[in-house]
Amino acid sequence: MPSSAPTKFILPDLVSDCPFQPHVSRHRKQVTTETKKWLFQGDNLVGKIRDRYHGLNCGLLAAMVYPTAAYPQLRVCNDFLTYLFHLDNLSDDMDNHGTMTTADVVMNTLYHPENHQSPRIAKMTRDYWKRLVSTASPGVQQRFMETLDFFFQSVTEQANDRQEGAIPDLESYIALRRDTSGCKTSFVLIEYSNNLDIPDEVMEHPLIRSLGEAANDLVTWSNDIFSYNVEQSKGDTHNMIPVIMNHHSLDLQPAVDLVGQLCQQSIDRFMNDRAQLPSWGPEIDRQVQIYVTGLEDWMVGSLHWSFESERYFGKGGREVKKSRVVNLLPKRA
């Protein structure tokens, strides 16, 4: 007899698994107000896209993942994160041609900000970029552009998979997801928000890269668990849970549990890497310590924020955080 389709699943207790303490910037309310003004000015966001912004609570996310940033830097970070969610929402409704067109506009604006293109997304890009480059080191500017380019390449690949109804294998999915998450660019903003100027050869050290990867994996895979319900209702399979169900022939709950175990392993990997960091001298070590603490803030902050935003659990986030029970939404027509 085939088993009946599940109606709910239990979340792994990732909040308890994460050993870091959450912090919130005192500038949270101010950046939330100012970013909303920036986002809603003119015709930046209209109709349904504007509705999606309400309940996102991105100001809290920025305040938790960049808690030590001064107000001007936190404002740029919050503008960027809100803009990234906006791009993510746009790309969900696009084919690969649409994502490539958006990518061209954004990347051309970064490389040639003096060229005044008119699309709304170009104006928004030019505006936050102008503010970012005024204090960002050359290394930060370069890493920001490179990682955002990776984001667009991977989102285009994701759109291809969506068009073809393809579910990638686990290894390909993990590599792609590290870029579609936008975490790499968001982690560059840890350097920017704390006025760091860490040499390229230090940022490219295998342990620093591995720490970034472990943090990215936790943020991304936990996000796959939290966003699964909404995504399954839309038939979206760019998520680790359906990838594992498909390739390991698992039912829903065992697949969720396995992703939870992988999240725990990424925390263990992070702790292990952190304990082995070499020394580059007092000044660079100080900056590296700030950067690594920034990765910790991202890991713990994103977990707590996911239950405060309405993006994944509607208005029931706090209840889900306590009970860890997620009732499956019906599939949309």
Would you kindly provide a written description of the structure presented here, covering whatever features stand out?
- With 333 residues, the chain is mostly helical.
- The protein has 17 helices and two strands.
- A two-stranded antiparallel ribbon has the order 1-2.
- The model has no long low-confidence stretch (mean pLDDT 92).
Brief sketch in words of this structure:
The chain is mainly alpha-helical and 333 residues long. It has 17 helices and 2 strands.
Could you list some keywords that capture this structure?
333 residues; two-stranded antiparallel sheet; mainly alpha; 17 helices
Largest sheet: 2 strands, antiparallel
Order of helices and strands: EHHHHHHHHHHHHHHHHHE
The end-to-end distance, rounded to whole angstroms, is 27 Å
- Beta strands, count: 2
Write out the strand line-up for the largest beta sheet, numbering strands in chain order.
Answer: 1-2
Query: What proportion of the residues is helical, as a percent range?
Result: over 70%
Which class of secondary structure composition applies to the elements? mainly alpha
What Rg do the Cα atoms give? 19 Å
Globular, elongated, flat, extended or rod-shaped: what is the shape? globular
Mean pLDDT: 92
Number of helical regions = 17
Uncertain regions: pLDDT < 50 for 5+ in a row? none
- What fraction of residues sit in β-strands? under 5%
Looking at how many chains there are and whether they match, the oligomeric state comes to: single chain
